[in-house]
Specification:
This protein has 408 residues and is an all-alpha fold. Helix content is 68%, strand content 2%. It has a three-stranded antiparallel β-sheet, with no helix packed on it. It is elongated, with a radius of gyration of 33 Å.
Length: 408
C-alpha cells in the first residue's frame, strides 16, 4: 500500500487537539467540583458509612445552598421516606412538582415518588389518585402493581380484579391471587344475612373462569378454598350430597388442606350416614396433620368409643409425637367424662386418670403447647391462631401452610 507522506503533517495536530480536549474536560470537572459545597461530600461519606441521619442533615444544607439540584431533592425524599419521615418526604416531592421549569420526565418521577410517600404514610386515597395519574407514563406498570396492593388493603376486590386485568395486558405474567379475589367476594356474599347466593355463585364462576384461562392460577391453596366455598354454597342450598362431594374432592386435589374442612365433612357425612371417618383416618396415614388428628380423635371418641379413639391416638402420637396432640386428647377426654377411676392392676396402656389428674396434667402442658398452637407465615413469620389465605402481616397470598408451628 502506498503511503502519502503529507499525512505525517496531521499526526502532531491530532495529538495536540486530543491533549487540548482532555485538558478542557479535566478543567471543567475540577471547576464543577470546586462549586460543590463541602456538605455534599460529607453527605456522600455518611451514606457510604451507613449513617443516613447525618447524611440527610448534610444534604439538606446543600439543598438550601443550591435549590436547583433536582436529583439531590429526589435523594433527600427517598432518605426521608426510608427513615419513616413521610411528611418531610411529601413536602420535598410536592415542592418539586410545583416547579414550572421541571422537565416532564422529572415531573413523572416526582409524582411516582410522591405516590410512594402517600402509600408509606397510609394515605391510600391520595396514593390511589397519584398512581392513577401515572397510568399513561413510563411508570405505568409500577403504578398498576401499587394500585392492586391498595385495592387489596381496602378489600375492594372488584377494582383489584380490574386492575389485575389491566396489568395483564401490559405484562405477560400469571397472577394466582386473582382466584382469591373472586373467593373473597363469594365468601362475603355467603356471610351476609340473608345470604346472597346468586352473588356467591357468580363469584365462584368467575374464579373457575380464571383457572380455565390461566392454569398457573390453580394452586393447592386456591383449589382447596374454591372447593370449600362450593361446599358451603351447596350446604346453604340444602344439597348435602353435593357438599359432601366437594369436600371429598379436597382430599384428592389439595390433600394437605384436609384438616381445614374435616369437621365439615364429618358433619354432613353424619347426616348422610356415610363413613367419612374411615376415609379421613386412611388419609391421615399419608398426610398427617394436627388439625386432622384432632377431628378424627374427637369423632371417634364421641361417635364410637374411647378404646377405639385412644388406640388411634396412641398409634398417631407414636408416629408423630406432638404436645398439641396430647393436649387435644386430654381436652376431649375432660369434655366426655367427669371422672374415670383408674385401675392399678390394669395394663399400662388401658389405665385412666381421674378428672383432677387430667386437669393438672393439661394445665402444665398448656404452658408449653400454647406457644406452638399457631399458623406461621413462611415469608414474614406472622403467627395467628386461625388459618389465613392472605397474611395479615405482609399481605402475601398463600404464605401460610395448613400446619401448626409445632409441625413445621
Amino acid at each position: 500500500m502506498d503511503f502519502e507522506s503529507w499525512w505525517l503533517i496531521f499526526m502532531p495536530l491530532l495529538f495536540a487537539l486530543g491533549w487540548i480536549a482532555a485538558r478542557f474536560d479535566f478543567r471543567h470537572i475540577l471547576s464543577e467540583t470546586r462549586h460543590l459545597p463541602d456538605s455534599y461530600f460529607k453527605g456522600l461519606n455518611f451514606l457510604l458509612n451507613e449513617q443516613p441521619d447525618r447524611a440527610i442533615d448534610a444534604f439538606v444544607e446543600v439543598a438550601k445552598l443550591d435549590p436547583e439540584t433536582v436529583d439531590l431533592h429526589f435523594a433527600l425524599g427517598s432518605l426521608f421516606r426510608r427513615r419513616g419521615e413521610t411528611e418531610r418526604a411529601i413536602r420535598v416531592h410536592q415542592s418539586l412538582l410545583l416547579r414550572a421549569d421541571l422537565p416532564e420526565i422529572k415531573r413523572e418521577h416526582a409524582l411516582h415518588e410522591l405516590a410512594q410517600d402517600y402509600l408509606k404514610a397510609g394515605m391510600l386515597d391520595r396514593a390511589e389518585t397519584a398512581y392513577l395519574e401515572l397510568e399513561s407514563t413510563a411508570y405505568s406498570v409500577q403504578a398498576k402493581r401499587a394500585l392492586v396492593r391498595i385495592y387489596e388493603s381496602e378489600r375492594d376486590w372488584v377494582r383489584a380484579i380490574e386492575a389485575v386485568k389491566q396489568l395483564g395486558q401490559q405484562v405477560d405474567e400469571s397472577v394466582p391471587q386473582r382466584v382469591h379475589y373472586y373467593c373473597e367476594i363469594a365468601q362475603k356474599a355467603l356471610e351476609l344475612k340473608p345470604h346472597d347466593l346468586p352473588a356467591a355463585r357468580q363469584a365462584i364462576q368467575g374464579a373457575n373462569q380464571v383457572v380455565r384461562d390461566d392454569p398457573n392460577a390453580s394452586t393447592p391453596a386456591s383449589r382447596a378454598r374454591l372447593l370449600m366455598l362450593r361446599a358451603t354454597l351447596a350446604a346453604l342450598e340444602g344439597d348435602d350430597q353435593a357438599q359432601r362431594e366437594q369436600l371429598l374432592a379436597v382430599l384428592d386435589q389439595a390433600p394437605e388442606y384436609a384438616g381445614l374442612m374435616a369437621q365439615q365433612l364429618i358433619t354432613v357425612d353424619t347426616r348422610l350416614q356415610g363413613n367419612a371417618i374411615q376415609t379421613l383416618s386412611m388419609h391421615y396415614q399419608i398426610y398427617p396433620s394436627l388439625d386432622l388428628f384432632q377431628v378424627i380423635f374427637k369423632t371417634l371418641r364421641t361417635q364410637q368409643d374411647s378404646e377405639t379413639a385412644w388406640l388411634f391416638a396412641r398409634d398417631a402420637l407414636r408416629a408423630h409425637p406432638s404436645l398439641l396432640g396430647l393436649d387435644s386428647l386430654i381436652e376431649v377426654e375432660l369434655a366426655q367424662t367427669d371422672q374415670v377411676v383408674p385401675d392399678p392392676n390394669a395394663p399400662l396402656d388401658s389405665r385412666a386418670l381421674n378428672k383432677d389428674d387430667l386437669m393438672l396434667l393439661r394445665s402444665v402442658m398448656k404452658q408449653h403447647s400454647q406457644r406452638l398452637d399457631r399458623y406461621t407465615c413462611q415469608v414474614c413469620g406472622f403467627q395467628a391462631k386461625r388459618y389465613y389465605w392472605q397474611c395479615p402481616g405482609c399481605h402475601g397470598w398463600e404464605t401460610y401452610r395448613p400446619r401448626r408451628l409445632e409441625e413445621n
